[in-house]
Amino acid sequence: xTIIQILIVAAAALFWGLVMRERGRKYFLLIxxxxxxxxxxxxxxxxxxxxxxxxxxxxxxxxxxxxxATEESRREKKNWIVIGIxxxxxxxxxxTRFLPFDSILTPSRPPxxxxxxxxxxxxxxxxxxxxxxxxxxxxxxxxxxxxxIGLFLLIKIPYxxxxxxYFLRSLTGQDVSASRxxxxxxxxxxxxxFRILHTLRDRQMGRLPSVDLAEYVTYVIFFPAFTAGPIxxxxxxxxxxxxxxxxxxxxxxxxxxxFMVGLFKKFVVADALALIALNDTNALQIKxxxxxxxxxxxYAFQIYFDFSGYTDIALGIARFLGINLPENxxxxxxxxNLTQFWNNWHMTLTQWFRAYFFNPVTRWLxxxxxxxxxxxMIALTQVATMLLIGFWHGVTWNFALWGxxxxxxxxxxxxxxxxxxxxxxxxxTTPLRKTIMNVSGVVITFNFVALGWIFFSxxxxxxxxxxxxxxxxxx
Amino acid sequence: xxxxxxxxxxxxxxIIINLLFAILQPGIGKLSAYNIIFPGRERLPFGENxxxxxxxxxxxxDAMFASHEINGGQKQADEFRVILVGDSSVWGTLLKPEExxxxxxxSANLSACGKNVRVYNLxxxxxxxxxxxxxLSRAMEYQPDLVxxxxxxxxxxxxxxIASPLVANNEESLLRLAxxxxxxxDPNDPAFSRDSFxxxxxxxxxxxxxxxxxxxxxxxxxxxxxxxxxxxxxxxxAQIDLETDQKFHRFxxxxxxxxxxxxxxxxxxxxxxxxxxxxxxxxxxxxxAGKNSDVRYNFFYPRWxxxxxxxxxxxxxxxxxxxxxxxxxxxxxAEFTNSAIHLTPMGEAQFAExxxxxxxxxxx
Lengths: 475, 364
What we know:
The structure holds two protein chains of two kinds. Chain A is mainly alpha-helical. Chain A is built from 19 helices and no strands. Chain B is built from twelve helices and six strands. In chain B, helix 11 (303-320) links the parallel strand 5 (278-282) and strand 6. The termini of chain B are far apart.
């Protein structure tokens, strides 16, 4: 998001929070979120797809609501109003193709409206067919999970996404030889998918609260958190959505401060650090180990300020509207060990993985008749979780290595703290010794995390190895 | 009330700081991390793709000079300081710092007057004598023992003088210079980019301030990589086959009117050097043997105009007793890169060889 886009979104949120307050807030959030997903979607060389991708987001969201909603919730008449809004907004946006000037709400001139009508019609027919199924089976949830994960993999695995681009180019009659992975970019899908997976899984477990369509769509595509999170939980989100929004002076001050701090972190600190942060080009140009450490640290701080800055912006804007999104960062670089680092870095993502992967897998492994030894179980679950977090960012060797680095690091920390718990406790008896232990923990953890960023920031494994060699004076 | 108070106070403070900035005009550019945290740059900052070149074009002369290695401390007693002034051929387009003319001369470990010769590259892309004078006026503060001013006919047409963005964005410095010298500058020239009072506030100067800030940050990459421009492996070679066009700017054969050539800028620069020896060098250029090369020497020059310029320079320098060296044909055509005045590293080495005796003879 550019600073202009952020300021426009914040101004709209502030206006609603201050002037309109509770009046029509639910529908404002829904309509604004719909507009924002079209508005922020990057322009694509694939003809029409920068308009159809937001439509696909909406369709997937509606379907996942449909299969997760309770029978009563599905039958509520107010859902038809939401369907009307979704269809109406989509068609209105599509009609902007007839304006004499370029639309400002879509990245390029929208495609022919007939195709959109066909897409919406087919969606309607499918939903209607689903509603006529007398017995609503839990297998729909499983299918939903598989399809969402499948779509996620299709977008994240370079080979598959390249194939997808090739296929879509041939479908639209475009030159297939010009296919690039970047031709297909689905803004915010990583977050959308994880919110949907959370609701599908919670429905399977019978712990999903009853939500109407407006609430569900707003939750999935909530505009302040659409592009960079945090990944809220639906039961927490709807609590805020259902309670009256009271943007008092104190609340305004806190939200405004959070928003301004976010802008500063992102557009001053992170963007300045980006000029000198480690990347594929400068990794091979740097002449000495000392400077390599500096650009690596620059990357470590850049990614933190960038991401936490966006989170602050999202939290600030959401708070203008009475929604208290969860925190995502809590001084992660000041934590004395890797476990604490991961409890404070991109917290909503790690909590998601803990809830939907780590804990269930650990429970399952423990339930074995002959459970494997505890250290092996810890190693397996931690490495697997971190590998998945790596793949969430992209299915590449480097993200796998990054995940592996942290998985192994977490396991080592787990074993180390287990082994040294007693003697560390005996040694750290004075405040000075406690401080020494804490500071050395922070320094080691930060450097371990920074070294891990090498895999994250670079696209090639061999370049990453070159950087490692240089950092330790071996190149 | 508390919120309103904070907003009002913040807004007032913002206005006051902006007004104070506009009134006081603090020389932010003089504050530099170069030569303190990072090594000084070997040439003045210039770059069109800053993310890849780790360099950028800005117009703050204070910041530009503060980032240069010449600003790196007192001149040593055993240093014979030579500064090179000129255009992109001196700055070294497509050349690494050590491959430029200054780099080649430094690697030759020359001595003059019993001192070690240290050559500083103060060339700057864009061709204009007035731009050179502007830079020279700053460079003279660094106590050079010898100034070598490399130029070419393209720097002379009067309409080119303020066209250089560096000149156009330094109206105040240039007018000050014109007032204290004989440099002819039209203060009403529309090419000047003028700042209103509001344009002098922090908001008005946000771009310039951001550039100074970015220049400091790129110091890290300069120090870490030694890179200060993009070095493409593939570029379009200088034009060999030429048009039959006989025109040179406003001039048509058979002669150029001296009144429309900025000899006044050249004289101003020479006078500005005062007692410091200054050598004017007519820099090497590509002499094409391609199509229509009987009409034109290269992309820049029809033969008649360039020949006439050489005669004028020769006559003027004899008349005024200027130290003038004409090296127009010192480098073969094969040693030019993407322009008729940009040399290959080998070309620069050949050029440097021709200048070596001139530097050695400078203290006689």
